[in-house]
Amino acid sequence: MKPACKKKRREKDPGQRANEDILGLVYGAVFLFLCLAVYLGYFLTVNREAVINNAYNARLDTFAARVERGKILGSGGEVLAQTQTDEEGRETRIYPYGSLFAHAVGYSGRGKTGLEQLANFYLLSCHVNPLRQAADYLAGRKSFGDTLVTTLDPVLQQTAREGLGDNKGAVVVMEPDTGRILAMVSNPGFDPAAVERDWEQLTAEEDQEARLLNRALQGLYPPGSVFKTVILLAYIREHPEDYDQYRFECDGHFSHGDYQIRCYHGNAHGSQTLAQAFANSCNGAFAQIGLSLDRKKLAETAKGLLFHEDLPLALPYSRSRFGLKEGDGDWEVLQTAIGQGSTQMTPVHLTLITSAIANNGVLMEPCLMDSVRNHAGETVRRFLPSEWGRLMSEQEAGILGEMMRLVVTEGTGSALRTEAYTAAGKTGSAQFEAGRESHGWFTGFAEIGDRKVAVTVIVEEGGSGGVAAAPIAGSIFDACITGQNAVY
After folding, report:
1. How far is CA 203 from the centre of its chain?
2. Strand partners of residue 447
């Protein structure tokens, strides 16, 4: 048989190969152009404001050259910041409330912080009539920038500041179901209008006041007994059917091997259920509970409550740290269970956890900005409440809320017992350095009519949270009802 004839492969014409190469380059160029168009469109629509608002974007300078920086208002229309122009055209940024809103509103001068930075794009935007803008340009005048309306309530802000007095510390007030931050105080403060003048003093290494530090967002503190809320949630998750069967006999201390954990001032609480141990802030009971917990599951609970995680905040903040690490011994577990050791958290983070408890386990995105208005008072943008996610189940939130209620009615939060509203919370006293007084903590929420308000207070070296911090929260809840506190 003759071998089968192999079909001879037909080679491409050189001209055809060149045409295909050129066509491939054209397709590639078109693809890259489309990618560039999509990328540009993204920044012109979705991310336009963030790009323009970046401190390194020189376009902001052109905005400032033709637009007078807009006002920042409180939730009731109170002027928190505005620009004044003298007869010679010199602009001065003034802050009518002085240091009261220094950290929340921030300053504009030697850089920008707070809302002055966050809302920079809006304050330098202008939505007045285009003909008016053209007339201003031709006349060599600046157009009026838009006005930012915040969620900040001057009455609550002043109440929080007065509550702290001369003590260092912080207060955060938030609506759990909307995420609106009603007050944010960090003490000591500073005069935002004098930052340029006082800069060297404010940033001097020998200055121990740390006035520029926003303690509400950036201050990291040992949480002390307010961390027992996290331990309580972890225990409930491990014992969903029988958590209420827990019992502990407290004689003022808990011993484990060579280690001993004492209750606050050595108080002997006697026979304690889980709810009673939480209400009385029994260190012995929670030390025992901490040892019984699965460490991996406890770490997962802490992570789910945003320890070591990013918070849904646009302003600069510090990440809270869960101190227990793999391989740590029993002493570290005992310390962690009562909120000591290397665990640290910020007041705002604690407020978010408390708000989620008050809001059936759902965390709303915290917000300081309510709306943007043009110079004529017309709303050009509104910031609506947005759900961030769920930190715990509705059932878990209900259990924690009931036990926090017992803290007020039967335990260490007695300063909030009143018939004017229904309050729930947790007190804490956190040791941070030998020979110095503990930090006083309180976090909780109150149902005032059909409204809920969450408050977190820390008083540095204030001692007992029930004595130093809880009354401040109470005055804020009272102010939500009466609105009678003086504001300057």
Report:
1. 24
2. 422, 452
User: For the purposes of burial, counting CB atoms within 10 Å of the CB of 463, is it exposed (0-12), middle (13-18) or buried (19 or more)?
Assistant: middle
Residue reference for tokens 């740290």: 321
Q: What distance in Å separates the CA atoms of residue 359 and residue 98, rounded to the nearest whole number? A: 34
DSSP letter string over 61-118? HHHHHHEEPPPEE-TTS-EEEEEEE-TT--EEEE-TTTTTTHHHH--EESEE-HHHHH
Distance between CA 177 and CA 362 in Å, rounded? 8
For the whole model, what pTM was predicted? 0.88
Dist. CA 306–CA 319, nearest whole Å: 9
Token pair recorded at residue 95: 């802050």
For the chain, the distance separating the N- and C-terminal CA atoms, rounded to the nearest angstrom, is 112
Of the candidates 173, 176, 174, the one whose C-alpha atom is nearest the C-alpha of residue 361 is 176
Map tokens 């295909």 to a residue. 20
Residue with tokens 């001057």: 154
Q: What is the mean pLDDT of each run of 10 residues along the chain (488 residues)?
A: 52 63 75 75 57 57 81 97 89 96 94 95 86 69 91 97 97 98 97 95 89 97 97 98 96 93 91 97 97 96 97 97 91 96 97 98 98 94 97 98 98 95 96 90 95 97 96 97 51
* Cα separation, 423 vs 48, whole angstroms: 43
Distance between CA atoms of residues 351 and 442, nearest Å: 10
Quick one: CA dihedral 95, 96, 98, 101, positive or negative?
negative
The amino acid present at 482, given as its one-letter code, is: T
The CA distance from 24 to 15, in Å, is: 14
Closest CA to 429 of 469, 370, 481, 377: 469
**Strand spans (E) along 142-293:** 143-144, 147-150, 169-174, 181-187, 247-250, 253-256, 259-262, 270-273
List 423's β-bridge partners, or say none: 446
